[in-house]
């Protein structure tokens, strides 16, 4: 199922690539805190990152945490990463997907790059270089990627570095990265040309906590 495959791809990029380079030697998340859903399940708020996500009116669902954990483990194991170590070190906010096809979907996670001396001084360029080095591994598993653009975009008051890819010749995979004080934030959205309007609706749901 494409929803599973693209989730595995993103987790390999944001989580596994850094663990494979020695990150998370202390096996701790640091002071990153996960957010929570409102009682009616329509609004997710993270006071640590000051980001909020509001679900579209209809057609989308949130992935249960147990599925996120299972797919995280699948992604890590698929490239030989230390699943147990990394899963104790990442904070994953949410994965929202279109309920009938799984596309588009949006997901947000955080990493503390300062937990290991080997990556404590990693800047955005270092992170992107490490991330892209893993594409060959993923391509051997049938996940091809072609970069089609790189820019800066402000969402929810955050200036994200955006790297856009075409995945398997069909899917648009946009990676939003933000680095502050040694913490890497990763916001990813995947969509087709036909679902671009729905993807924009998802991104519009990401706002700042006032």
Report on this structure.
The strands form two sheets. The chain has a seven-stranded antiparallel sheet, with helices on both faces. Strands 1-2-3-11 form a four-stranded antiparallel sheet. It is 30% helix and 34% strand. The relative contact order is 0.20. By secondary structure, the chain is an alpha+beta fold. The chain contains six helices and eleven strands. Helix 1 (2-20) packs across helix 2 (65-78) and helix 1 crosses helix 4.
- The stretches of 5 or more residues where confidence is low (pLDDT under 50) are 1-9, 16-28
The total strand number stands at 11
Radius of gyration: 16 Å
Structural class: alpha+beta
H-E string: HEEEEHHEEHHEEEEHE
Number of helices, counting only DSSP H or I runs of 4 residues or more: 6
Q: For this structure, what is the CATH class?
A: Alpha Beta
Using the coordinates shown, work out and report the CATH topology.
Protein Transport Mog1p, Chain A
Mean pLDDT, to the nearest integer, reads 80
Instruction: Tell me the count of domains.
Output: 1
CATH architecture name: 3-Layer(aba) Sandwich
Helix content percent band: 25-40%
The N- to C-terminal Cα distance equals: 38 Å
Strand order of the largest sheet: 4-5-6-10-9-8-7
Strand proportion: 25-35%
Biggest sheet: strands, sense, closure? Answer: 7 strands, antiparallel
């Amino acid at each position: 199922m494409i929803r599973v495959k693209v989730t595995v791809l993103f987790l390999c990029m944001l989580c596994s690539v850094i663990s494979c380079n020695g990150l998370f030697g202390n096996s701790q998340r640091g002071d990153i805190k996960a957010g929570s859903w409102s009682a009616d399940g329509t609004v997710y708020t993270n006071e640590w990152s000051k980001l909020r996500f509001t679900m579209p009116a209809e057609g989308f669902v949130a992935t249960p945490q147990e599925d996120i954990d299972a797919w995280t483990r699948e992604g890590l194991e698929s490239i030989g990463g230390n699943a147990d170590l990394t899963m104790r070190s990442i904070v994953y906010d949410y994965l929202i997907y279109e309920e009938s096809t799984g596309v588009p979907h949006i997901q947000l996670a955080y990493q503390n790059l300062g937990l290991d001396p080997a990556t404590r001084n990693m800047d955005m360029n270092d992170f992107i270089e490490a991330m892209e080095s893993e594409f060959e591994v993923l391509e051997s598993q049938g996940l091809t990627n072609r970069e089609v653009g790189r820019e800066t975009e402000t969402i929810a008051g955050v200036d994200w570095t955006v790297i856009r890819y075409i995945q398997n010749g069909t899917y648009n995979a946009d990676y939003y990265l933000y680095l502050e004080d040694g913490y890497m934030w990763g916001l990813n959205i995947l969509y087709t040309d036909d679902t671009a309007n729905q993807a924009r609706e998802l991104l519009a749901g990401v706002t700042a906590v006032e």
